Structure formats: structure tokens, C-alpha cells
Amino acid sequence: MMPTKFVVGLTGGIASGKTTVANLFAEYGIQLVDADIIARVVVEKGSKGLAAITEHFGSAILLADGQLDRAALRSKVFNDEQQRLWLNNLLHPMIRQTMLEQVNASTSAYVIMVVPLLFENQLDNLVSTTLVVDISPELQVSRTMKRDGVSQQQVEHILASQMSRQQRIDKADHVIDNQGDINLLRSQVARLHQLFLQQAAELSNKPND
Question: What's the total number of domains in the chain?
């Protein structure tokens, strides 16, 4: 099931400001489909995802109230490639399916799909165009340390596991520079919003094959 709507795949490295940019598009009435939110929904208490995880890893990965203990699950898969692959193979199709359902149920002129690992997980094949929020690695490190209260070493470890800044930019159809102030960001979003409206209108006027 491919989306029939114009979908913008919004991505960027850690602490690049994806949420800020997505929310600026939302101010224009554009609906957001957020992979991180959906990833939490598919393992909520009572979900098929959580039932499968519990059956596989045992009830030790549950909190006292029956919710998923994320820290316990992380420790199970952190250094075990096989278990990590098992978990990804379970959750990725569920997340993908829910994202597509939300896109197809949306009513705005186009949709912003916010996916941190858009290129890494080959989810760019679900979107009409790609938009990368770009900042320097130095800013990523300082913003993440401040936001998450983690060490520089931990942030650099995360950065090393993600696609490089240059690789991401090379793959992007559009790039937003988030190294300036909010007004610079707003003007870039305003310009892209007009472009996406135009492209969405062109897509909806195309005859179906």
C-alpha cells in the first residue's frame, strides 16, 4: 500500500531540530505523521507488538503496571545483533503500516512524515520528496548534551551509528539550515510550504495510471 498523497519525508541527525521544523509546517495546517510516536504506540500495553516482545523475551521486560520497560529491552538488544534484528523485523513492518494508514487518512494538502532514520531504513521509498534538517556535528553534540544530559562520548557514539551529514545531504531533495535563528527557519519553511503545495496540486491533477 503506497500513499496516494504528496508526502514529504522529513529527517535529520540527532538534535538537528526535526520536531521544531515539523511544528512550523503544522502551523500551516499540515498534518504530521511521526515515526517516533508510532514506534511507542505499537508497543503500548495491550498491543500485538508488546505481546510478541513479552513472548520472546519473557515478562522481565515489563514494568509492574504491565507497560514495556524500555531500559530492560534496550539492555537485551544493545550488544546482541541477533536480538536487535529480531526486534526490528517485528516492529518495522508495524510502524511502516501505521505510518501509511495515517498518511492515507490525512486531509491536509500534503503530509509531513517525520522519520529520524528515513534513509537508513529505506523509508524514503514511501515519500514523494525528502527534506533534511541540517546542523553542524558540533551543534549536534552541544544540543544533545544539553537536552538529554548525556556525555560527549555518548553523543559521538550515536552520531557514529547514524548516516554522516554529507551522505544525508547528498540524498536529500531539499535541505533546511537550522544553524541560525527561528526567523531564518520560518522563512525557509514558508518557501518550502509554497513549493510543496504546488507539487501536491500537480500530483493530484495527474491522471492515475
Answer: 2
12 labelled binding-site residue: no
4 appears as a binding residue in the annotation: no
Identify whether residues 102 and 167 lie together within a single domain. Answer: no
Quick: pLDDT tens for 87-128: 999 999 999 999 999 999 999 999 999 999 999 888 999 999
Is 128 annotated in a binding site? The answer is: no
- Please give the C-alpha separations between residue 137 and each of 144, 146, 173, 177, 183, in angstroms, as whole numbers: 10, 14, 21, 13, 22
Which of 107, 122, 144 is the endpoint of a domain? 107
Q: Using CB atoms within 10 Å of the CB of residue 87, give its burial: 0 to 12 exposed, 13 to 18 middle, 19+ buried.
A: buried
The reply, when asked if residue 161 is annotated as ligand binding, is: no
The range of the structural domain enclosing residue 62 comes to: 41-107
80-95 pLDDT, tens digit per residue, is: 889 989 999 999 999 9
H helical segments located in the chain:
18-26, 35-41, 48-57, 70-77, 81-105, 137-148, 152-161, 165-171, 182-205
Task: Tell me, yes or no, whether 89 lies in a domain.
Answer: yes
Asked whether residue 170 is assigned to any structural domain, the reply reads yes
